[in-house]
Amino acid sequence: MFAELRFLIQLGHAHHIARRYFVTNGFDGALTMLGLTMGFYASGGVATPVAISACLGAAVALGMSGLASAYMSEAAEREKELRELEQALVGDLEATAHARAARLIPLIIAAVNGFAPLLMALLIMLPLWLSEAGVPLPLAPLPSAIAIAFLVLFLLGVFLGTVSGRSWLWSGLRMLTIALLTAGLILWLES
Amino acid sequence: MSSVKRIVLDVLKPLTPNALEFASAIAERHPGCRVTVTVSEVDAKTETTLVTVEGDAIVYDDIVAAISSLGASVHSIDAVEVSSMANPEG
Q1: Does residue B14 belong to the interface with chain A, where contact is any CB pair within 8 Å?
Q2: Quick check: B21 and A98 CB within 8 A?
Q3: Which of B80, B7, B75 is closest to B40 using CA atoms?
Q4: Does A93 sit within 8 Å of B71, measured CB to CB?
Q5: In this predicted model, what pLDDT tens digit does every residue of A24-80 receive, in sequence order?
Q6: Cβ contact (<8 Å) for B16 and A11?
Q7: CB contact under 8 A, B21 and A11
Q8: By the 8 A CB rule, do B49 and B40 touch?
Q9: Given a cut of 80, is residue B85 above it in pLDDT?
Q10: Can you give the pTM of this predicted structure?
Q11: Contacts A98 to B, Cβ<8 Å
Q12: pLDDT at residue A95 is higher than 90
């Protein structure tokens, strides 16, 4: 079962695509949360339950968007590739590993694409929940969430640096710079 | 009673799985067999290969089923080696 799954993932190059989707949509999720929390902060702050509700709504929407968009686009692409391969081989591939991979891989990629922004968003929201639960934080809830967003984006950059084999520090700092520019832009627009 | 010891098949396969993965997948489904895949021609989406399977008692239909499940098709049997067991009654 596990060997079959690994074979199908390898056959469809799903690990490369899933990794790309994880970073792309994870970045979207983290930056959206940074935008929301910066917006709340720049407007003078809101009650933590309001911030939690808004962030949770955005997180669920990002997750659903990632899930649905990746499934629909990947399923269509895989179906097209399967039909082209059938034409090249002059045969029906429905009972083959290729057809199973064409059905399974969109599900895996959709799960990764939906899970990545949700995970990033939930991590960034963690200080808001902790504050509501009465856990003392070193900073106020919103600045804590913003700090976590910077950290998450830096770590995404580190992950990309590790994948590319280049400097993880440089890659992390580059991502952090994008986050800082975004935060600066929001502050400037709100001022 | 005879058994197939070696069979060489002309197989048209998709580019993925590659020759190594293709040979490994066939071998995994037929423990004790030795599988050799030689690529003879490469096209945009397919490649023509010679698949050689060696073993003590190869079941042709099982080999074809394994090849088909990987999206490939057998075009012809190019060589075969069959041996018969000696009759104990002489």
Answers
A1: yes
A2: no
A3: B75
A4: yes
A5: 999 999 999 999 999 999 888 789 999 999 999 999 999 999 999 999 999 999 999
A6: yes
A7: yes
A8: yes
A9: no
A10: 0.79
A11: 14, 71
A12: no
Query: A85 vs chain B: nearest CA distance in angstroms?
Result: 7
pLDDT band of residue A115 (cuts 50, 70, 90) is: very high
Kindly tell me if the per-residue pLDDT of B29 is higher than 70.
yes
Q: Check A84 against B69: CB less than 8 A apart.
A: no
**Dihedral sign of CA atoms A133, A138, A140, A142 in order:** negative
Q: How far is it, in rounded angstroms, from Cα A18 to Cα A120?
A: 16
Residue with tokens 């640096």: A161
User: Which of B5, B6, B9, B4 minimizes the C-alpha distance to B51?
Assistant: B9
Phi/psi at B14 (nearest 5 deg)? -65, 165
Answer whether B25 touches A (CB < 8 Å).
yes
A1 and chain B in contact, CB less than 8 A: no
Kindly report the average pLDDT of chain A as a whole number. 91
Q: Does B17 contact chain A (CB < 8 Å)?
A: yes
CA distance A89 to A83: 10
Catalogue all structural domains in chain B, each as residue range(s) with its CATH number.
2-84 (3.30.70.1340)
> Does the beta-carbon distance from B71 to A97 stay under 8 Å?
yes
